[in-house]
Design a protein that fits this description.
single chain, alpha/beta, Rossmann fold, eight-stranded mixed β-sheet, globular
């Protein structure tokens, strides 16, 4: 059962993904950008870019399999370049195992293959390629900001915890998010491990951001929305590792049919700005997660000997 529990940890947010059949284009919030901190209100892309150009570090969140989110990331990166910035780009998706490729990296169309992207489990490189194309325009340096899954699981199993653990309220909110993301299928001890893993990932990204800043004087992070959150993501750790750096956090949120008020989506302290996008599918994420879990159980059942606990529970 321990290997099955590790498998649930590996599923992570894959239950949150889906096929890209875009929906919600007619929603009144689709395409709008909101300032979240201070006075909530709609702003234009130019205003967002002006604010981003003033920050040392810009963290741009995403739903990993959403095509529009990656086009927005590329557009923002290009806007920063046009404004005279030359940020380093830190990627959640790239780990130290792949970092040697970044030293003298190939152009965007060949980079995915060089990184072995198709074997990593991330959505297609074609979704991320526009970001690399924008970066190639100014030869921006890339940094690995991620941790291999095996590495983080091994660290958590050995009791590793972040240098700066989240305070009680932020930890509770993260746990609530993880429980919801795993649709109630994960016991308390596994949620503890997931919380530690999430914080270790955020800590790694923060440290790589600080290192990248020393080289380039500004940084853009490409990462999932949870890692870009100002209150409990990488910015939380960065404020403790490199408190002198200013940050701007941008979340990209999908609209929901019938939920037309921006305030229903916005949480104080979560992001500085939110860019609303269409929803790419209407499938229940918990149903996807349930099917992933069932497939995992079947695989473990086939591999286990007749007297094994996994076999017995079936």
């Amino acid at each position: 059962m321990r290997s099955l529990a590790i498998g649930v940890l590996l599923i992570g947010c894959t239950g949150c993904g889906g096929r890209a059949t875009e929906r919600g284009r007619a929603h009144p919030l689709t395409g709008r950008i909101y300032r979240v901190n201070g006075k909530i209100g709609v702003v234009g892309l130019d205003a967002l870019l002006r604010a981003a150009a003033q920050a040392d570090v810009v963290l741009i969140g995403e739903r990993h399999d959403h095509p529009a989110h990656h086009l927005h990331q590329a557009r923002l990166l290009k806007g920063l370049i046009d404004a005279g910035r030359r940020p380093a780009v830190v990627w959640e998706m790239i780990t130290d195992r792949q970092a040697s490729v970044l030293v003298d990296r190939p152009k965007a169309d060949l980079l995915g293959r060089a990184l072995g992207w198709d074997a990593t489990g991330w959505p297609s490189w074609k979704l991320y390629q526009p970001i690399a194309v924008a970066a190639d325009l100014a030869a921006l340096p890339f940094f690995a900001g991620g941790i291999d899954r095996a590495e983080v699981i091994n660290a958590v199993m050995k009791g590793a915890r972040p240098q700066y653990p989240l305070p009680g309220d932020a930890e509770a909110a993260l746990r609530k998010q993880l429980i919801a993301g795993h649709c109630g299928h994960s016991p308390g001890k596994l949620i503890d491990a997931m919380s530690a893993a999430q914080q270790l990932r955020d800590q790694r990204m923060a440290r790589r951001i600080a290192k990248a800043f020393q080289r380039s004087g500004s940084v853009v992070l490409i990462a999932g929305n949870g890692h870009a959150r100002a209150d409990r993501g990488a910015p939380y750790h960065l404020r403790r590792i490199a408190p002198q750096l200013s940050t701007l956090s941008i979340g990209q949120l999908e609209v929901t049919a019938g939920q037309n008020a921006a305030e229903a989506y916005l949480e104080a302290g979560s992001f500085d700005y939110v860019w609303f996008t269409e929803r790419i599918d209407d499938q229940d994420p918990c149903e996807r997660f349930r099917r992933s879990l069932e497939r995992m159980k079947r695989r473990h059942h086939k591999k286990a000997p007749a007297s094994s606990p996994v076999s017995a529970t079936r």
